Amino acid sequence: MLRSLVGSEMCIRDRYQRRVRGPWSLLGMEIEVLPGPAGRTRFRTVTGHSEMVEDYDQIVQQLYCRKTRSISGLGKHGAWTVEIGDPEMDAVADSNGGLMFKASSNNPIFARYDTPRAFEWRVRNLSWPAEVYSVEVDPEAQQIVIRTSNKKYFKRFGVPELLEIGLELEPESISHSFNMNTLVIHYEKPVEVLNLLATRREKYLEALAGVPQAEPGAAALMGGPAPEGGDPNNCKQQ
């Protein structure tokens, strides 16, 4: 019985340590500053199994885009996943062999856009009136659930940052509004998240302070134009 309890306690502690050491926490990660789009500063962090790229404003306060991808044991990179910011557009080849982007669909588009003090999600292209939408917390699954009374749209999603630090969703922290065919959902960031964000910002500012301003391309590192030819890690504009 004692061995079982000790084993269970170690398992819980290991799961907690893996949560707080996830990509979002930046613990034990080397931070690299990269050229970003105009008006933005880009940071890249890599672990043995994942890579993350984030675009911030020049004072490292507003996060515009976060993209992650996996890295296999053989060093092979997976596809990018946009966690914050506009979803990637689908590209198709034109008759000349170049790339063109498909026109936007009329289907609902779900994306996340954070503010300094709240998690935010938007669902665009919703054509039904405001009264049909409901936003609730599923306490068992620890997910936010969007429903419509006409049963035309359904979506459930979690908040990885809360899972990493072991916090549960609080229904009173959620609010939503509807305007111009867009449902906007806000979740107020708890104090624990704000404290981690402050520590995260300090680490990014320290990395940014280490960039020599006299080097060629230093203006780009501070939010100037991206290098000619583009950046394969480029985050889309909002």
Outline the secondary-structure elements:
Blueprint lengths: L1 H19 L9 E5 L5 E7 L3 E8 L5 E8 L10 E4 L6 E3 L5 E3 L7 E4 L5 E7 L8 E6 L4 E6 L5 E4 L2 H5 L9 E6 L2 E7 L2 H19 L8 H4 L17
Antiparallel strand pairs: 1-2, 2-3, 3-4, 4-5, 6-7, 8-9, 9-14, 10-11, 11-12, 13-14
Q: Can you characterise this structure?
A:
The chain has 238 residues and is α+β, with helices and mostly antiparallel strands. It contains 4 helices and 14 strands. The chain has a 5-stranded antiparallel sheet, covered by helices on one side. Strands 8-9-14-13 form a 4-stranded antiparallel sheet, with no helix packed on it. Strands 10-11-12 form a 3-stranded antiparallel sheet, with no helix packed on it. The chain starts with a helix and ends in a 17-residue tail after the last helix. Mean pLDDT is 77; it is low at 1-23, 91-101 and 214-233.
Name some characteristics of this structure:
single chain; 238 residues; alpha+beta; five-stranded antiparallel β-sheet; 14 strands; disordered N terminus
Please summarize what this structure is.
With 238 residues, the chain is α+β, with helices and mostly antiparallel strands.
